[in-house]
Amino acid sequence: MDAFSVLTPGAFTTVQDRGRYGFQQMGIPVSGVLDAFAFRAANMLVGNPETSAVLEITVMGPRLEILNKADVAITGAEMGMTLNDQPMEGWKSISANSGDILDIHQVKSGCRAYLAVSGGIDVPVVLGSRSTYVGGKLGGYLGRPLKAGDVIQSVEAKPLSATRKFPSDLIPKHPPEILIRAIPGPQDDFFQDGLETLFQSDFMVSAKADRMGYRLQGPNIKLREGMPKSIISEPTMPGGVQIPADEQPIILLVEQTVGGYTKIVTVISTDLPKVAQATPGDTIRFEKVTLETAHSLYRERQKLLRDLEERLFHQ
Amino acid sequence: MSGGLFKEVGFRIAGDQGLLVEYGDAIDLEVNYKVRAMAIVLGDDPPAGILEIIPTYRSLLILYDPAVAAPKDLKEALISLEERLPGIRIPPPKTVEIPVCYGGEFGPDIEFVAESHGLSVADVVRLHSEPEYPIYMIGFTPGFPFLGGLSETLHTPRLGTPRTLVPEGSVGIANNQTGMYPVASPGGWQLIGRTPIKLFAPERPNPFLYQAGDRIKFKPISPEEYSRLAREEE
């Protein structure tokens, strides 16, 4: 059914889900949401499974007209939001009616907000996913960011029996100074002093920061004497911190499949949402953790999400 | 490139959900064969918790769910699966013919390539369309093939300044590599021609015309033939 029509699209608003797995060997990146925590929270708040598609809203939000009664929730970055000109809270389900105007303004802190609608956004499933890959004009709404005049569909769903609210102590803050945990490798052996430089310096997020990757500015990360400047192209991971020829790190994200530069460390999956919410000018510091620590953090995060789902369901 | 197969498989940690598996340190058909064979063996009977297997020139990336799979078990599984390699059959390579209109508006850099090697444009076309190029891997953009076997006579450096937009179907050269752009993207390769064939079409049941391991043979066509084929593709 028709969920909403787009009155103004915002700066860069796309349909995303968990991502498109299984086609990287054909050059198709995973895409999907950058902030998996806010995404999961948005879906929970409106009673959707974690597979539902949402809108990923970047920096400046869209103005939407609701076309059918539905539960809506917005999470992630803190944006100014109004429903029919009345201030609206994030991280909470809102029952919206046909004709309501939902207006998402400029970001206040963070970078990306997630809008979930009950039932989930319905666009054709392309190669197993509803995610938009703009570079390949693939998936999402006609393979592109939303434009004024687009009408977005959603899957029909039962309305919530009560409002759901995310526990306020668990809503992530988005300060301009960010600590990100990372595991050395896959090519940490190509570096010596470079590892020390990476873990002991501040890096600034540059203006070149998008869904492909975040270019950082800081002290040069030097390869060990005599190591080759590039490697035979190999798969890349979201979170891989690549050191290109100019020795300034790039945190690779979800729209890249292969690369020929070394990755000195890899950001742990639990901290990727922090990268997703960083904006140009923010300061990033890396903290070294072991694979075992990263795995236990991952399991804790999964358990937290399961417990939350349980709690919200009984609200 | 020298080198070849490693005696023992190498493992590298790629974050908390990725295990990088290396079988050699060279762009080499034997190494690449082993990578693809292992991807098939693994894909046939994947250990629990594997999200995706991504084969490239000489390495595989295994994406896993750490709640289900542990890297230690994955490593053991990979080593024991090697025993099954001699028995497995990987699909015989098919040769895919790609019609290319060389030069003119479709290949704006062909004269530069010819001149920098003291060749005629016709020589470039002949040298480029003669071989069957093995596809080592696909990446960068959907369906972008990394091909081996470009004639040494044609090795040409990348453009000083990359183009902001290379048209879909463009065929190019960068150093010792040749390839084609299935979707329009920025790029720094020397463009020598263009194919009217849709190399990537997500609306087709099979969006791709080839996979790693197949071979590409370029067939020179005239501008008229290009127009005719382009109309058929629509």
The percent of residues in helical segments of chain A reads: 10-25%
Query: What is the distance, rounded to the nearest whole angstrom, between the alpha carbons of the first and last residues of chain B?
Result: 42 Å
CA distance, first residue to last residue of chain A: 27 Å
Give me the strand/helix succession of chain B.
EEHEEHEHHEEEEEEEEH
The CATH homologous superfamily of the largest domain in chain B is termed Cyclophilin-like
Measured by DSSP, the beta-strand proportion of chain B falls in 25-35%
Radius of gyration of chain B, taken over Cα atoms and rounded to an integer in Å: 20 Å
CATH architecture descriptor text of the largest domain in chain B = Beta Barrel
Shape annotation of chain A: globular
Number of β-strand runs of chain B: 13
Question: Unreliable stretches of chain B, pLDDT < 50, 5 or more residues?
Answer: none
**What coarse outline of chain B follows from CA principal-axis ratios?**
elongated
